[in-house]
Amino acid sequence: MPETNDSDWRQVDLPHDFVVEGTFSAKASKSQGYLPFGVGWYRRHIAIPASAANRAIWLDFDGAQALSTVWLDGEELGGHASGYTPFRFNLNASRLAGRTVVLAVRVDATKPDSWWYDGGGIYRSVWLTIASPVHIEPWGVYAPALVGSNASITDGHADAALLPSVEIANWESSAQDVMVHFSVFDERGEVQHGTPASVTAAPGDIATVNETAIALVGAKLWSLESPSLYTLVCSLVVKGVTVDSVNTTFGVRKTVFDPQRGFFLNDVPTKILGCANHQDFAGVGVAVPDALQLHRVAKLKEFGSNAWRTAHNAPNEGLLNAADKLGFLVWDENHRSTQPDEAAILVKRDRNHPSVIIWSVCNEKLCDSHTNNGSAVKAVFKKLDPLMGRPTSANCDAGQHFPPPAWYLETEDLVGFDYGTTSCKLRPLFDRIPTQ
Prior knowledge:
This protein has helices spanning 93-96, 290-303, 317-326, 340-350, 373-384, 406-411, 423-432; strands at 39-47, 56-61, 67-72, 75-80, 87-91, 100-108, 126-131, 134-142, 145-147, 157-162, 165-170, 176-185, 191-193, 197-201, 206-210, 214-220, 230-238, 241-250, 255-258, 262-265, 268-269, 274-277, 307-310, 329-333, 356-363, 392-397, 416-418. It is an alpha+beta fold. It has three domains: 6-131, Galactose-binding domain-like (Jelly Rolls); 135-250, Immunoglobulins (Immunoglobulin-like, Sandwich); 271-432, TIM Barrel (Alpha-Beta Barrel). The strands form seven sheets. A six-stranded parallel beta sheet has the order 22-23-24-25-26-27. Strands 12, 13, 14, 17 and 18 form a five-stranded antiparallel beta sheet that branches. Helix 4 (340-350) links the parallel strand 24 and strand 25. The longest helix is centred in the C-terminal third of the chain and has 14 residues, at 290-303. The mean pLDDT is 91.
């Protein structure tokens, strides 16, 4: 790790944006708020307990803006080139257990990846996780809850089914027989158990278990007025001992986009009254704490809004938790059409949030018209979220980037456009849309 002067260090709390703490300058970029960008260093001493020996241990960054490099005790772990998505490093528990180690992170924000204020620094949370060698893979639980195709919706209730699946990681040196238990809790704490499933997890591999449907008779539906939530508890048992358990929040709701009649939520015609909001906020830059996300969603509901477009990137998870809790719709946006790997992170992390109703491939000039990667990103959405029926879209600047690239009309389920929305400009697009 490069040397730094000890006198330069000061204590900060995460989330943190070092750019917003700077001095405004007329020489700095207007689109970035006239705040000079630069490089930030972070360092922390971490005591790893002796009990971590022979355990699985990893380091999660929810987000660092923009180009990050990470060292542990002077050894470079790697880096992450996107400021908008989480990243993770698996660590060697046997080597670290019982020691105090130094975590150092360099965050280079000298080249913002946008035409808006990006901020800089570790602007989302960081987690050190110690788990059983046999554990549930991070974001490995998928909890699609489907209202029956012939089910009637009465007073916000309907018969539904949960079809959960779970990815199980085995860091042991030998195969492990794992029993998987699923339990569903409603808001009153009442529980319903699924059928236990068994799987043999190969060493160093990830095994997937798909549970048979768990019936949710008369499920209370998630809606804008009554955002009811359920909790799926997934537990792993090895040799009679529970080695891991993960709680996943989900909602039961039915969404339909009809080309003639519009959007329906739980069979109720619903006008989407939304805003395209960037992730920064006055005074804190992009380092928005979860409590402020809850405040933002609540205030937007007071204004009469019911939807949030995550312009133009993956949001932090606190925003989605707030939208789930308060009853708010979300257009969840991937940063670039050339980033299917980023889209995979987005969808695995966010697919259990009932607030998310649309997957977005990209926005305006972030949609590369010279490639067909939009199709690759859409394929990622459909592969990793195959059951919830969320449509894909992308945002086209009808005034400046029109007509949209060919892959756009070929691969998107919903047409998204902005700015130049006069009929003469949109007429060629409407003429090319299939009528069936």
